[in-house]
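This part of the workshop introduces the protein records we will be handling. An example says more than a description, so a record of this kind follows:
>
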Amino acid sequence: MTFPIMEHNKFEIIDLQNELRKTEGLPILQKRLDEAEKNGQDAFHDFTDPDMMKWFLYERRHLNQENERTARTVREYERELVLFIEQLFTYSTDIDVDVAYIIEGSLFKSLQSRHLRRYQEWLATDSPHVIRNGAYSPATLERKTTILKAFFAFLHKVGYIEQPIHEGLRIASVRKDDRPNRDLGPIDVVTLLNTFRDMQQPIMFAIIHVLTTTGIRNEEFCTLQVKDLKIDAIQGGYYLDVLGKGNKRRHVPLKEKVVQSIRQFRQARGLLPIEQALLEAPLFTTNTGRAYSPSYLSQYVKKEITNLGQLKLSNQTMKITPHVFRHAFAIISKLNGVDIYDIMRSLGHEKIETTMIYLEKVFEKERHAIHSWKSEGFGEYI
């Protein structure tokens, strides 16, 4: 079996990745679609598989380009789709990709539901990652399935493929018990802050302080620039102008002590004070003066906390990453009586169900039957 865009090897996979990232070709694809419409032809009649991948990744759906997928999301989708193609060829025998012939020079038109299902099952049980590192987490399998399903549903919707083969993918939703424990309460956060303060470590102190009191995402923290720290002309103080998922902005108020932590961070890094720094400069930097990447920030936080040794936290086995402090923001907000819809908006969540996931253990404890017990017949022991 051959893929019409390449004879599979690592060099041509790189060629495919490079081709997908050439966004200057998008106007040409749009022009071809316009010509097809003008001539009464099927919209994607002359598109190739790589054309369809590129259109799926970069299609303009909003008049305001800021509302399109973020570059990070596009890269994540691209990486998963290219990996899917690479693995489909490298392990075609193991996956049992029994395609008799290529339809119209297209791999995607030649696949059927069973191929997606077999790939998904192989990915979960026999893929190199599983053999080398153990099973993927349920959340990772859900993410991979979601991307594949979205792509092949798109191909079917626009008429590039005839059958809704994405329906062959098995449901990979994450059960409550499969989710990693990310519940960090106020006592644990204060313990960490006190520890790094006593160690005179303003870098980690500020990172934890900012993440916990704002609830911003790892990538939102990393992309903050000096200009995003703004004076609140209405209520006084400062706020962060945060660019979140879907290129949606939200204003995140800062307590005065958090602003002080940011200033101490910059002083410790040898950076100019906020008032003197270039507006486009990163607000937070590594020791080399560069903006953090999400992966580097995650590694840095995990390493610094691991180096503390046996710190007395409520859960000694929890892997503490920047995202854990986003959960802490939600939990501490709820414990302080904040309405769940206000927590949802503060976190930048689109759906209340997502916020509920952050707080499900808090709700479970709050609503436990024991809290409704009266003293009658058992008062001596409660």
In short: Confidence is low (pLDDT under 50) at residues 1-8.
